[in-house]
# Entry
Amino acid sequence: MKQINFKILMSLMLLALCFGACKDKEYAIPTASDKLQNDLIKRSLGPNIVGGTIEFAYAAAILPEKGKLTSMTVEASIAGATGTYLDHRFYNTNNSGTDVGTAVGDPSVTTGKTTQVTYTGDFSAATLRYFYKIPEEARGKTISFTFTAKSSNGETISYQSGPHEIRNMDMALDLVAKDGTDFYLSIADMKLYNATFAAANPDKIDLVYLYRTPTNVTYLHSLVAPTADPAYLPTFTMPTGLNNKTKMVKAFTVRDQQLARIQYGVFVDDVDLRSKDFTDAPDFAINMKAEGGVWVQTADGKYNAYIYVNTVNNTTKEMRLSMKRLTIK
Amino acid sequence: MKKIFIFQLILLLFVIAACKKDYPMDDDGLLITNRSDCYVSAFELLGADFQTVRTKAATIDTTAQTINVEVLYGTDLKNLYPQFSLVIDAVLDPKIVGKVDFSDLSKPKEWTVVSGNRKVRKTYKVYLTVKQ
# Structure
């Protein structure tokens, strides 16, 4: 009898639990903290490269009856390069989809590692954007940031971000190779040169851009090393002295977002450049297409690079290219 | 008691029968079937950028056991990835595990197709020509 009573009791408890679980909890609007609050998001994606920008959005707010915002300060562990600033405006998107800024004070002032905006208006909440230009001295190191907001009632709040690793590679964007004009590419300099420069500095030339339309075969926009077989240099004679055997591996789906600046979430990083295998790689890449690319290793093995083809133009015989380059030795 | 013993014995027989392998497998864990068909149905050749380097569809002669492929001018012949489509249950020997060097055009590469029952073997030669 005792056992039966226990079973009934357990069943009733279970039933009660089931009912309890089904009960709807009424939503209650959360009560805002009466303290100064802050939050941070990192807006920029991908590897942090010297010369590039790391972007943050820093928000702070306080109840209007408690006080107003008086300043926002960002301190970087390594002083940013020229061009580092904290935007003194917050933005709203209007009906046309355009960001419209509202200034909260004067433009930011950067002193050493610290960048500050002092509020002059009557603002209790604002999100400011911080743009940190990565300096040369940060290469291969890590950077941390401290974001601080102050309010008129004397409160101070901070948000730490980092460490953020700065890569060793370099990046060059939108180099325009033009057949017959500037078509000698130097990986070391990350620049295109004309024939006069190439003749005077043959050691610097790693690749030659050619646009040709031979009959029967497709050549179009091609990158060839100075040592390429003459079969891959139609109607072109390589100037004497150019003899770098640059290794190349074609790629097609490596649409690096920082190089391409289009929708794909692909990033070439230091480790990709360092680990790329160039065994048996050829010294020519024929018929390069827009959004394609080529992995490159210089003849002396000093640099590994990834060259992305942004656009090609058959009429003007041009190729717009961008590259990431890592010093290997 | 005797009946229980007989019942247990029958049950044991059932269990043993259930564990018996009806489907033989090869060293790669692939089923060995009764099919004796043995041929290549399609052939693809990809470059280092994993894009096709063919100028047109490969010509497959299942009687002569040859595959003729014309590749684009400027193809890097040392770093190619061949892909075979085979008749059902057949396997390829040797397996393709990475890039293949086709640069010596005078020596066609060879692969053997092994039928589903693993009893028929046909060796195909792959001839490359470069569009000029």
